[in-house]
Structure formats: C-alpha cells, structure tokens
C-alpha cells in the first residue's frame, strides 16, 4: 500500500508548507509585531477583550504558538495578569482555526497554480529588488509565504491520490477513533504546528484516506498537541510562565475530552450547515472552529477559579539571595548596620564571580569557596540569570537601607549607611561596565588578530591579579596596612591602564591593529579600568576609617592634579 504514496513529494509538500508558514509568521511579525505586542499589553483588560485580542492576533499572525510565547513573555515580565493571559490563550485557539478555513475554501476549491505561482513570482522579484527597503522586503516575504503555503498543500494533495485509490477504509475502521486522536497529538507535537497538522488532516480527508469522523478525532488531537510548544517554553521558567503553560494544557485537554464524548451532537450541528458527504473539508473546518468556541464557552465562567487553582499549584517561591540582612531586624540599628556592611561585601563577591565568568576565568584561581548564589544549586547560573540575581540582591540591599533609615540613628551611623550604599552603587556600575563590553571580550578571544588575542589574555591576567590583591587586603587586620595596600592596588590599576595605552599606540604605529579595532580596544580598556577603580573605591569605603578615607581621596585628588600637569591634558581624555 505504501508504494502508492509518493513519500518524497509528500515530505516536500510538508516542508514547503511549513516554510511558507514560517515566512508568513516572520513577515507579519516584522510588519506589525510591535502593534500586536502593544495590543496584548494594552487591549487585554478583561476576559472578553483578552479572548477577542487573542483571536484577532492569532488569525493575522497565523501562529497560536507565536502568540502563546508572547503571552509567556508578558506574564513573566509582570505586564499581563494571569486571568487575562488565560483569555488570550483561549482566544488564540479560536484564531488559529482561520488557517483551516483558508485551506478548506481555497486550497481544495481553486487551481493552485493560478494564484500560488504568481504570489511566489512577484514575491521573489520583490525580495531581490527591494532588499534595502524593510517593509517592501517583508511584504515580498509575505507573498512568498502565501504562495508556498498553497504550493506545499498541493504537493501533499497530489502525493496521496494514489494511496487514496488503493486504501480500503474497512481495514482500519476497527481501531477506534481514539487512535486517530493520538495520531493528531503526535503529529502536532512533532511538527510544533497545529496549522500544518490540520492541513495534513484536511488533505487526507479530501483524498478520502480517512473519513469525517477520523478527521474530527485528529483535529481534537492536534489541539491537544499544540500545547507542547507552550509547555516547552515554560519549562524551567518563573512560576507565572508555568501557570500560563498549564492553563493552556488544562483548557485544551478538558475541551478535547468534552468534544470527544459529545461528537455525535457536534457532528449533528455541523450537518445543519454543510452536507458532510459532499463537502466534508468545509465541515471539518467548521468543526475546528466549533470545537474551540466550545472550549471558550465551557471555561469562560471559570477563568477566575482556574487562575486561583494555578496560583496554588505554582506558588511564587521567593529565592533568598541575601546572606545577612534577611536574618537581622532593622529595629536594632547597630546590628543592622553591620549586617548591611557584610551584605554589600557579599554583593562585591558575587560581582567578582560574575566578572570572572564573563572573561571565562576559572574561579578557583581566585576563590577557595564556591559562588554563594550557587551554594545549593544543581547547576551553574547562566550569565543573564547571574546578572538578574545580582540586581535583585542590590534591590534587597536598597530596601533594607530604606527601612533602616526610618530608625533612630546617630550621626555616625547615618554617615556610615550613606557610605555603604554608595559602595553598592559603585559595585553595580562596575558590573554594568563588564556587561557592556562582554561581546568585545568575546571578539578579542576569537579574533584572527594575534594582538587582540594577546590583549584578551592581558585583561584576564589584570583581573585575576586585582581580585587576588583585594582578597588579601580584606584579610588584613591592620587598618594602616589595608590603607597602604589599597593605595598600591589603585596605583597598579593606573599603571596597567597607562601601559595598555602605550602598547596600543605602538601597535597602531606598527599596523598591528586596524582602525576599527583601535576604538574597541580603547573603549574596553576605559570601561575595564573604570570598573576596577570602582571596586577599589568600594573596598576603601567598606574597610577604612573615615579619616583614612579622607586621606585616600585627597591622595587621589593630588594624583589627578599631578597627572594633568605632567600631560598638559585632562586625565580622562582617552
């Protein structure tokens, strides 16, 4: 029987259809993506409006998965409430049925070549001639996408015509409809596109490979299978994203069970509009729409209840990032001030771990202990997650500082607090510098220019030496020795900065670096040096007495004046 199926033509048709869907989705998102994202943010206030917005956006974008992933992003960012997110997801299920109507009304009624080829031709010419015009380029992709959509459908239809003539439906009628429901789930889960799987079902039905009841079961399965994309997008995410993913699963599963058990009644409703025997493809498209509307009707009164249940299933577990201030009440100012000081040093340590990772430096070269954030973690944090944790820790420090300010503090404690909070801002600015030139470091590492490779290694060495020095200074007991060591560490930073500039200028004169590389080198060095200075300033304000801090700052001022007089130019001119 399989020899009657043109497998390669079927796979080619499926590939062309999926590629057409991809081009459609990509071009529409580029042309109107911001508009639709704005609609999801602003026009989803209330469940009815959320359902309507979800339906409209999905119908235009031709991708419920794209809308669902947008919803996940907005819920994760706290822009969209849980109830409204559920409404958008329900609406997206209705909107995705628009594809079935396009396929049913055009794909099997008209001669494909009469409009698919002109769309591809015009779009292809536009792709070549309008490459520099963003909107015209995306419009050309839109035309090509529509053309490929129907061309792929035509290939699939032609590939199964021989199989349809040789297939005896009586041979598979005994399996039961649940087998076809499972087939719909598997096909959609594998292809990550319910639109593509519905098109396959419509093609099989049009070619009489399956009967109407089998097609209906596969459509139900396809709607369950499409939840896989959203579930995958929510795995390992924050709790709000998990709630949205499972709301989509619950909605589609319950709707599928109700629809499967009430198939005779639904089919009777469809027969009121279409003669299934002669127009089964249109009947199946109508069933797809009725099925999803049924789900909305069932769940609409229970959106609030579903939201509350999901909040209980996936409660927000606040991750404790602090080491000291969460255990210390702000009502005891002396203890709270010391806890805040220790927490800010903890912030400095986390920032050092973060910077080492950005430069791919083995942390064991600097620290004997593991990163505090990862003490009980099963795996290392990604750089982006690490940065978010540092920001959250800093926010906790600021919140604790604000609470502490409401207590009765003497003048000395109040000044200490201001100094400590200034340290935390310096630390955050230092890691922002590193984050800002992260891509430059990566480019230096993989560059074909040996000079850039060498400078990358020098930056890494400078950072390791600085952090080893800072750890040694922190372990010192004598305040005077700490003061002298900090001054020396600062001088070493300045010396390394000056040496880098001299080496770069020599490399320029020897043509070891190109013009575009010069500005990158100088920018990276400036931000790197600033970050190192800020961390030394932070240690100075954490460790030294007020008198030593004044002497340190005076020494820095005198050095800047001396440098300016020696160079006859501003000290920060490079």
Q: What is the tally of helical segments?
A: 24
Structural class determined from secondary elements: mainly alpha
Spell out the helices and strands N to C: HHHHHHHHHHHHHHHHHHHHHHHH
Helicity range of the residues?
over 70%
Strand content: under 5%
| Quaternary structure classification | single chain
**Gap between N and C termini, in Å?**
77 Å
Provide structural commentary.
- This protein has 574 residues and is mainly α.
- The protein has 24 helices and no strands.
- The chain folds into three domains: 2-313, no CATH class; 323-436, no CATH class; 448-574.
- The model is unreliable at 164-170 and 564-574 (pLDDT under 50).
Features:
mainly alpha; 3 domains; disordered C terminus; 574 residues; 24 helices
What's the helix and strand layout?
Blueprint: H1 7-42, H2 47-61, H3 64-76, H4 82-95, H5 97-107, H6 113-129, H7 134-159, H8 161-166, H9 177-191, H10 194-206, H11 212-225, H12 227-234, H13 239-261, H14 263-271, H15 280-299, H16 303-313, H17 333-358, H18 383-405, H19 411-436, H20 438-446, H21 450-475, H22 479-509, H23 515-543, H24 546-567
Summarize the structure.
With 574 residues, the chain is mainly α. The protein is built from 24 helices and no strands.
């Amino acid at each position: 029987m399989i020899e009657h199926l043109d497998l390669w033509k079927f796979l080619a048709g499926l590939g062309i259809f999926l590629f057409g869907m991809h081009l459609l989705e990509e071009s529409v998102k580029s042309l109107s993506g911001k508009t639709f994202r704005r609609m999801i943010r602003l026009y989803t206030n209330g469940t009815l409006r959320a359902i309507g917005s979800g339906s409209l956006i999905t119908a235009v974008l031709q991708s419920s998965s794209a809308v669902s992933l947008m919803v996940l992003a907005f819920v994760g960012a706290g822009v969209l409430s849980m109830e409204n997110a559920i409404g958008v997801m329900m609406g997206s299920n209705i909107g995705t049925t628009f594809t079935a109507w396009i396929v049913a009304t055009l794909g099997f009624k008209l001669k494909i070549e009469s409009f698919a080829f002109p769309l591809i031709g015009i779009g292809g010419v536009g792709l070549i001639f309008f490459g520099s015009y963003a909107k015209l380029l995306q419009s050309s992709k839109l035309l090509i996408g529509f053309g490929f959509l129907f061309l792929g459908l035509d290939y699939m239809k032609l590939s199964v015509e021989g199989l349809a003539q040789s297939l005896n439906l009586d041979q598979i009628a005994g399996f039961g409809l649940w087998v076809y429901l499972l087939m719909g789930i598997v096909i959609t889960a594998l292809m990550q596109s319910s639109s593509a799987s519905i098109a396959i079902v419509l093609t099989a039905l049009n070619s009489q490979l399956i009967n109407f009841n089998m097609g209906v079961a596969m459509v139900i399965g396809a709607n369950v299978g499409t939840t896989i994309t959203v579930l995958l997008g929510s795995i390992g995410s924050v709790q709000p994203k998990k709630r949205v993913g499972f709301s989509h699963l619950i909605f589609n599963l319950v709707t599928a069970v109700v629809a499967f058990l009430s198939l005779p009644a639904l089919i009777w409703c469809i027969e009121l509009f279409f003669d299934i025997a002669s127009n089964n493809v249109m009947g199946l498209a109508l069933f797809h729409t009725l099925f999803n509307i049924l789900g909305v009707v069932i769940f609409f009164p229970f959106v609030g209840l579903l939201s509350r249940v999901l909040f209980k299933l996936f409660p927000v577990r606040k991750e404790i990032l602090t080491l000291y201030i969460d255990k210390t009440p702000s009502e005891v100012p002396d203890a709270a001030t010391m806890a805040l000081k220790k927490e800010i040093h903890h912030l400095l340590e986390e920032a050092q771990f973060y910077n080492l990772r950005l430069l791919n430096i083995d942390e064991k070269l600097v620290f004997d202990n593991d990163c505090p954030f990862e003490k009980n973690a099963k795996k290392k944090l990604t750089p982006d997650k690490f940065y978010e944790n540092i920001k959250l820790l800093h926010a906790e420090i600021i919140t604790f500082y604000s609470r502490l300010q409401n207590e009765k503090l003497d003048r000395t404690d109040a000044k200490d607090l201001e100094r400590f909070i200034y340290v935390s801002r310096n630390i955050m600015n230092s890691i922002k510098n590193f984050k800002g030139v992260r891509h430059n470091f990566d480019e230096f590492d993989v560059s074909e220019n040996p000079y850039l490779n060498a400078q990358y290694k020098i930056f890494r060495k400078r950072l390791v030496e600085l952090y080893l020095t800072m750890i040694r200074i922190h372990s010192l007991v004598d305040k005077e020795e700490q003061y002298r060591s900090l001054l020396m560490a600062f001088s070493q930073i300045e010396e390394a900065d000056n040496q880098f500039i001299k080496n770069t200028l020599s490399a320029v004169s020897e043509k070891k670096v190109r013009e575009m590389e010069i500005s990158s080198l100088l920018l990276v060095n400036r931000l790197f040096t600033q970050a190192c200075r800020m961390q030394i300033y932070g240690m100075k304000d954490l460790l030294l007495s007020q008198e030593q801090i004044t002497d340190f700052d005076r020494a820095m001022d005198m050095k800047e004046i001396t440098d300016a007089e020696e160079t006859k130019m501003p000290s920060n001119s490079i």
